[in-house]
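[AMINO ACID CHAIN]
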Amino acid sequence: MSWLDRHRMYYSANGQIRQRLFNSWTSSPLNFRATLQQEAQAAVSRVRPTLAWLDEPEGSLVIHASRLFDGIDDIYQYNKDILIEGGRIAGIEEHKDRPGSIVIDLGDLTILPGLIDADARLPATLVPSHGPDLLTMGVTTVVASHSDAARLNELWSGKQIPGPRFLDAAVWQTGHTPSPELDVTAAVVTSRSTGLPTGQALSTEFRAMQLAGLTPLQTLRGMGVNAAAALLADPYLGRIATGAAADLILVDGDPLATVHDVLNVVAVVRNGRFHSVSGLLDRAKSAESVE
């Protein structure tokens, strides 16, 4: 799937290339011609980049999930405890009393992996205070080219000014890496094609996915496991599983039924640290005062 501009989108369906106008519920087929080479080019091997684990917190944390979407299965898991050690998920177990543990229970919320923007369109002037703002929109990983990527990644991995995991696009390039456990028909959802900044683009992109016939599950995978696989960042990102990064979002609603519910972010766990949305907004204001 690809955007030609802000008004037209191309996608494939039933063996055809089709065009849909953004404000239209109808689509039309496009004629195209493809030329196949006589000899297939040898596949270019990609080197898996190393994911940096920066400023991981000490100690452990337990998040009680009334309803859990692990990023892969097409159904929820219920009444689970997500065990977090440092910045990673140590296990997922049945809920029980855990004397002596720090347990966070926000009631009937849905917990799912943080969203990945695999080709982010970031503000022209990127400042530290943008980090907490992006987390309030559920985006816990961005991939973009930026001269300050390394510094912001280190800063946003900490406690004072939290923000998304910032992966340099020069290193983390998307490609096709199908996996048997993934729905490879789902698009990798990104913000750049919409012309809007990451975070703000989500509502527009979700609507485009719906118009193209993708289910909420496919759309969520497009900003989760499929994006992680394309970046060669699996199995660490885009899923809730033992060994994965503790980057989670807690939302009010049922995203597997209505994908826009993923925008109803109440709290975020980033690099193993819990942040309420109100707390993130306060940190963004504090960061602005020193920029």
About this structure: The mean pLDDT is 83.
